[in-house]
Amino acid sequence: METVEPGKYEFKFKLVTPEKRMLTVGFHRDETIGILKDRIQKKLLEKGCNTIPKERQRLLFNNQILQPDNSPIYWIAGVGADCKIHLVDNNPNENTYKSVVQMDPEPLVNEELKRTMAMIRDRFNTMKILQRNFDTCVEAAKSNQEPTERARYNEPDGATPKEPDCRDLGYLVRDMAKSIQSLSLEMARLSDVLIHDDVYSERTAAEYYQVKKLIQNVMDSTRYFSPELQIFSSFIVPIQSPPRRTLSLVTHANVKSFNE
């Protein structure tokens, strides 16, 4: 087995070639999949393996194709030190994907994939709970409801899919869009109140309580919506994969390295 020169790369992974040889390939987290494919092509040549042009390379990890080529490697949940990636020659005259599954005794859907999918489902479930509370706050602002009488939810509205995909996210985004549209109208109403800056000398006056409720409900709406957007931005939508496209995830470590 080939070894990586110490200090040359941040991480390394095991590459399983079509001939079932195991090579160790180094990479940096800020590199793209395309750069990695260039390095793999050179590595195959150095080790006397059958060379595969970059445009024909398909990298399989956790039963998914790593793509597109311009995507940073660290955007792909689970890819890291000592993981195993299968190299497939996407030769139009051959069908080699099936042979990878048949010949490799190690299941492609391993414990790491299960943990990642559990994390995706948990975040999707949390996002649905936040959306339910967000929409409730917006409706309370529209009806001028007393904030203390507003319902609080710890469960989502409806079942959360076991493996959230693009369509599941699409329905949730549509609900978000409706709530955002309603919130924009309430924020416009609140902006008028703030700009006028009227004096409310009597706390028992109806106008005072109306303004107070509007402010509280709008503020509470944004307090739910802010973390919902954070979770939304952590999902990866693999648009180049065939339907149904299961969501992937930018991990906390990846987000941290991205911000550094």
Q: What is the H-and-E element order?
A: EEHEEEHHHHEEH
Number of domains: 2
- Low-confidence stretches are 1-6, 95-109, 252-260
Q: What is the CA-atom radius of gyration, in angstroms?
A: 25 Å
Mean pLDDT: 80
**Which oligomerization state do the chains in this entry correspond to?**
single chain
Strand % is 5-15%
Shape descriptor: elongated
Percent helix among the residues?
A: 40-55%
Labels describing this entry:
alpha+beta, 46% helix, single chain, Ubiquitin-like (UB roll)
Give an account of the 3D structure:
This protein has 260 residues and is α+β, with helices and mostly antiparallel strands. 46% of the residues lie in helices and 11% in strands. It folds into two domains: 11-109, Phosphatidylinositol 3-kinase Catalytic Subunit, Chain A, domain 1 (Ubiquitin-like (UB roll)), CATH 3.10.20.90; 113-259, no CATH class. The protein has helices at residues 33-46, 97-103, 111-143, 166-196, 206-232, 252-259, and strands spanning 11-16, 22-27, 57-61, 64-65, 84-89, 235-236, 248-249. The chain has a five-stranded mixed β-sheet with strand order 2-1-5-3-4, with helices on one face. A two-stranded antiparallel sheet has the order 6-7. The two termini are 34 Å apart. The relative contact order is 0.12.
Question: What topology does this entry show?
Answer:
Blueprint: E1 11-16, E2 22-27, H1 33-46, E3 57-61, E4 64-65, E5 84-89, H2 97-103, H3 111-143, H4 166-196, H5 206-232, E6 235-236, E7 248-249, H6 252-259
Parallel strand pairs: 1-5
Antiparallel strand pairs: 1-2, 3-4, 3-5, 6-7
Helix pairs in contact: 3-4, 3-5, 4-5
